[in-house]
Structures are given as C-alpha cells and as structure tokens.
Backbone:
C-alpha cells in the first residue's frame, strides 16, 4: 500500500518536472497514461523514441500547406516511357490524391487542432478529372482550393519554348512555389501527382520534422520517398531517428518535398531559378540548397513514385507496390 | 497470335542470355514466372531487388554454424542493472534460444540446401536450467549440441581478472571462437543468450550476406542488431541494399555477429587477443578489424538485445519489444 502511494507521488513529481518514466518490468509508461511504445510523442510538445529518449519540441508546427500539381494530359514529362502498371495518367492522379486524403484524415483524426490546407494546381482542363476531384475531396473535412491552371499565366517569366512539355511542367511548378511563398503556414509540402502515399505519411512527416528540427535547431527539407538513385553509387550519409523510422541525409531531391516557409523565403531565388529556365537536372538549384541545409528521406519509403520500373528516380525498394496500388483504388 | 509467339521467343532468348525481364503492365517477371511482389531471388544463384536489379551470387553459402554462448545465472555481466522485463536470466536464455531455433527452422524450410548446426557453449548452468534448455532442443528438430565451458583449459591462458564472471565471460568467448575455427566451414554466427531474434533473421542474414559480399567481392561481417549507440553520434555511414531491407556500415560490434571461416582465420590474432584480457572496450580488437573489413547492421533491427532500457548497446529503435518477447515465451519448459 505504502509502495503504491510512493509510486504515485514519484510519477506526479516526474510529470511536474517534465520527465517521463519507463517501468521496464512491465514495459509501460506510467507518466504517459494509455500510450503505446510507438505512440509516445505529443505534437508540439515532446517527441519520444524508445530507447533514444525524449526531445523537447522547440520548433513547433501549427499549420501545414500542401500544394499538389496535377496534369492528366502529360504521361511522363520529357519521356516516352510508360509508368509501372501501364495505366492512363488519370488513374495515377486519382490514386495519388486518394492516398493523400487518407493520410490527411488519419493525421487529423488524432490532431484535430492542427491546421492543414490543400491546394491543387491542375493543368488537366478535363471535366471528368474535376468531377473526380469533387468525389475524392468530399472525404476531407475542409474544402481544398482547386486552381485550374493555364500555363499562359506565367509565360513572361519562363525562358522556354511555350509549346514544349517542359514549359508546362516548369510553369505549374512556379505556380506552386508562388502559392507556397504566399502561404502563412509553418511548413509547405509540394507534391506531384504520381506518388502513392502511406497512410502515416503526414503524421510522420510532421512529427519527424518537429523532432529532428528541434534536435538540430535548424529548418529542414524532408522528401517523402526513398529513391533508388540513393543506392546506385557509394555515398556517405548520416542516419537519424525520426518519429517512427530511420531517415537519411541526402543532397539531391525531385520536386516532391516538404520545407519550412522560412527556408522557402530564404532560398526564394533558387526556387525561381529552378523554374525560369530548363536546368539539367531540373532540380539543380534545389540540390544546391540541399548541400547547405539538412535534407532527409525516410527508410523505408513513405511515398512511392510511380515512374517507369527502370527509373532510378522511381519506385522505392522493399515496398509492396501492388498492395499500395490496390489499396488506393478509388 | 504472332505477337504472342514473338513474346515467347523473346522470353526464351532472355533466359538463355541470363537476363530477367519485367512486365510492368502485369507486374510480373515472365522469365522467373513470378509476380513482382513475390521473392524473386534464388539462393546461391541470384539476388533480385526491385528496382535495383540483379546481383549474380559469387559468394555462395553452403553451411552456417551457430555458436550460442549461454550463461543462465549471471544477470548482466559487470553491471548491477536489470534487463527489460526484469526476469531471471534463464528466462532470457530460453526465449533467446527459442527465437534462434524458430529463425533457423524458418530458414531451413526456405533454403533447404544449406546445412545448419547449433552448438551451445554452456557456462555451468544449474541442472534445473539445463533441463529446460535440453527440452527445448529436443523439440527443435535441429542439429543442436551442448558443450560445457572448460574453465580449467583457459586459466593459464587468460590473464587474472578482477572477478570470476569476467574470467568466465572471456573463457566462453574464447571457447566459442575456437569452436568456430575448428568446426566452421562457411558462415559462422556467434550469438549471445540475451538477444531475441525475428523469425526472418537467419534468412535475411544469409541472403543479404550473399548479395552484399558478392557485390563487394569480399567476405564481410554482419551484425543482426541495430544498436542505439549508432544514433548517439554524428558518424557517417554507407547504406546498402540487402535482401529485404536496408543495411548500414558500422565500425563497432558487440560479441554477436556473423562472419566467414576465411575472415575468422585471417583475423584469428584479433579474435584470440580479444579473449586474453578484459579490454576497453571489451571488443577493442574486433573493432580494429572493421577498419579493414566491411561490417554491416540492419535497418531496422533483426534481433533485439535485451539489456537495461537505458543501455547504449541495448534495445533497438522502432521495435515492438513486448510483442517479440511474448512471441518467444515457452509455455511447457
């Protein structure tokens, strides 16, 4: 009886002092009631990974803007190849957005106060696609901003032949970056329309951002995909523990990534340079940012880039691609 | 019809040339006659990881000798701390051996041409504990033998230690290394009795060894646990593609690792010297080897080192400890 009372007092003192205790006999967490080993973190407060301990969240995230660019008219920009499963581009867009909606809803379920806005920059100019958007986004508890984008809008800012596919690609990218620049969110997540996302994507991206950004006291770039090019040559990297998996540092990205609004402002010129001419690679100026800042991708992948099966920027290793594809059927 | 004949001829030609082809529309490999989400690798022949392609296996595996070092009485050597779950040591030894048996049996069922043998080096277990271990062995269906640690053999070889458990620890390690040197043929896996293993551990260790050693054209060391100390510093690493998971290069191990007979012979002096005295760290002379040879550990862990929850060399991140602990409970021991 006395032991029980003392235990309760110790737990209370720990709580007041900001410590968490682990009962290693039962492997329970008395100061964190009703929490499981893989669910000990509290957004904007603390990130706990056993046995690596607790990180006080000093870089809090209140709001996330997600900006997705879609185009059902171009199968793969600048290439004649087909994507894995050889389907019509519309199907990739639908499944990609479906998976995103599932991930947003899953995150919001436990973090209702967290603000998310979603913008779709659509170049499809297709009524059927618009109807599909309505159907898919009806599952969200907020209304996304869908922009029917005309590449003419930014014609004067891009030094390229207007009729080339790449022009459309860069103009929609520039539009997305500009929307991100105007955003009032802490984090901006730029996404393309050919990624399938795991249900935990948004949760892990936000919680991992908070954890590692607070640990390093720096803003970050997070890429959701574990690309095959990372394993094509000998490369030294740092491995970090995110909220639920390992993450590795990298110095090359594609155009799907999450970044802090602050970093977007700091490197705005690099974002403009990415879109105003045809660089080789397209992400050349973004990669220069990654050389100066901390850029991370997950192990294993949180999103699957549905490219051609031979692409070194495509499907991630060790992911059940067929399962992910089937799970996200509309 | 004509297209179908041409397709079939092309598949045959590809097979003849040793290529595998992928039908990305049907998500199948016609040359392997398998769906792409099934295991595409063939042990001792080729390792295929999508989309990273095929590695011809030049470092084939024919046998694996597992040497399980056991002390059912000493709670944690050199420490007063308790382990996760705070049970008597025999409980850890039993579950560790049970998980190893499960993992070997799973590998044996899949890789039928590989020879498996387990030797337990027992450090004077009480009869009651030894009987529990023997019962587990009897029901295992595996080739397992028990060798008692011969303290006398080593009393003039190992320097005098501050206490008997330290001497015993060094002696059992030396006896394990000597058994590996004497009886090992191909892969040798030194395992301590406080690790719980996932069922797929042995399969993944063997298949990843084959793939990575063949790619590097070098024998390597493989450690089954992803220790927390790896995330306590800013050390750079290489990430490699194993059979079904990522692996990383490391420069330190504990005394649970797998290597080849060739590397054991080549670095015998380091193995032997490790056991002659208590070094700081204990594995100092083993760690010297990793300056010259590749040593890798998995992301995420294949085995769980059941130490105190605060140990740097203990519990791996992102593993459901309780589940693995419960899965390896022995009900009739």
Residues:
């Amino acid at each position: 009886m006395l032991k029980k009372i003392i235990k309760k007092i110790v737990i209370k003192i720990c709580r007041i002092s900001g410590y968490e205790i682990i009962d290693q006999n039962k492997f329970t967490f008395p100061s964190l009631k009703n929490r499981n080993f893989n669910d000990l973190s509290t957004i904007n407060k603390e990130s706990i990974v056993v046995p690596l301990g607790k990180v006080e969240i000093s870089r809090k995230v209140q709001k996330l803007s997600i900006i997705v660019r879609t185009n059902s008219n171009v199968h793969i920009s600048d290439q004649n190849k087909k994507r894995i499963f050889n389907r019509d581009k519309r199907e990739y867009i639908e499944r990609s957005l479906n998976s995103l909606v599932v991930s947003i809803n899953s995150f919001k379920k436990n973090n209702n106060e967290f603000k998310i806005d979603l913008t779709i920059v659509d170049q499809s100019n297709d009524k059927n696609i618009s109807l599909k958007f309505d159907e898919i986004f009806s599952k969200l508890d907020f209304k996304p901003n869908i922009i029917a984008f005309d590449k003419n809008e930014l014609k004067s800012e891009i030094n390229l032949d207007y009729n080339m596919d790449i022009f459309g690609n860069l103009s929609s990218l520039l539009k997305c970056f500009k929307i991100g620049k105007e955003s009032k969110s802490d984090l901006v997540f730029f996404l393309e329309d050919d990624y399938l996302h795991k249900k935990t994507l948004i949760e892990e991206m936000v919680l991992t951002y908070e954890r590692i950004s607070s640990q390093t006291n720096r803003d970050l770039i997070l890429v959701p995909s574990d690309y095959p090019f990372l394993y094509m040559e000998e490369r030294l990297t740092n491995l970090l523990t995110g909220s639920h998996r390992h993450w590795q540092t990298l110095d090359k990205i594609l155009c799907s990534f999450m970044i802090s609004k602050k970093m977007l402002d700091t490197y705005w010129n690099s974002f403009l340079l990415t879109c105003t001419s045809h660089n080789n690679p397209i992400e050349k100026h973004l990669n220069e940012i990654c050389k100066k800042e901390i850029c991370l991708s997950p192990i294993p992948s949180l999103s699957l880039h549905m490219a051609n099966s031979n692409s070194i920027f495509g499907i991630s290793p060790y992911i059940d691609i067929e399962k992910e594809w089937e799970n996200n059927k509309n | 019809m004509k297209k179908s004949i041409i397709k079939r001829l092309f598949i045959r030609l590809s097979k003849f040339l040793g290529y595998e082809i992928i039908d990305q529309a049907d998500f199948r490999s016609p040359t392997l006659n398998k769906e792409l989400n099934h295991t595409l690798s063939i042990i001792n022949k080729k390792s295929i990881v999508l989309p990273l392609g095929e590695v011809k296996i030049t470092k084939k595996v024919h046998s694996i000798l597992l040497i399980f070092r056991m002390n059912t009485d000493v709670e944690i050597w050199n420490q007063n701390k308790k382990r996760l779950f705070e049970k008597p040591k025999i409980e850890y030894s039993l579950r560790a051996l049970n998980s190893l048996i499960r993992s070997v049996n799973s590998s044996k069922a899949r890789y039928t041409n590989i020879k498996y043998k387990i030797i337990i080096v027992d450090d004077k277990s009480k009869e009651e504990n030894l009987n529990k271990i023997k019962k587990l062995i009897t029901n295992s269906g595996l080739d397992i033998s028990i060798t008692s640690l011969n303290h006398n053999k080593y009393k003039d070889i190992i320097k005098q230690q501050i206490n008997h458990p330290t001497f015993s620890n060094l002696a059992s390690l030396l006896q394990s290394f000597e058994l590996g040197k004497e009886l090992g043929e191909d892969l040798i896996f030194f395992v301590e009795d406080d690790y719980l293993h996932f069922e797929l551990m042995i399969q993944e260790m063997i298949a990843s060894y084959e793939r990575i050693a063949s790619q590097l054209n070098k024998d390597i060391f493989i450690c089954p646990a992803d220790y927390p100390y790896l995330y306590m510093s800013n050390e750079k690493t290489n990430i490699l593609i194993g059979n079904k998971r990522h692996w990383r290069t490391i420069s330190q191990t504990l005394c649970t690792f797998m290597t080849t007979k060739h590397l054991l012979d080549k670095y015998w002096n380091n193995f032997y010297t490790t056991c002659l005295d208590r070094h700081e760290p204990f594995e100092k002379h083993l760690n010297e080897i990793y300056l010259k040879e590749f040593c890798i550990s998995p992301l995420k862990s294949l085995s769980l080192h059941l130490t105190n929850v605060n140990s740097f060399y203990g519990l791996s991140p992102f593993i459901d400890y309780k589940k693995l602990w419960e899965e390896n409970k022995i009900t009739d021991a």
In short: Chain A touches chain B through 47 residues (CB under 8 Å).
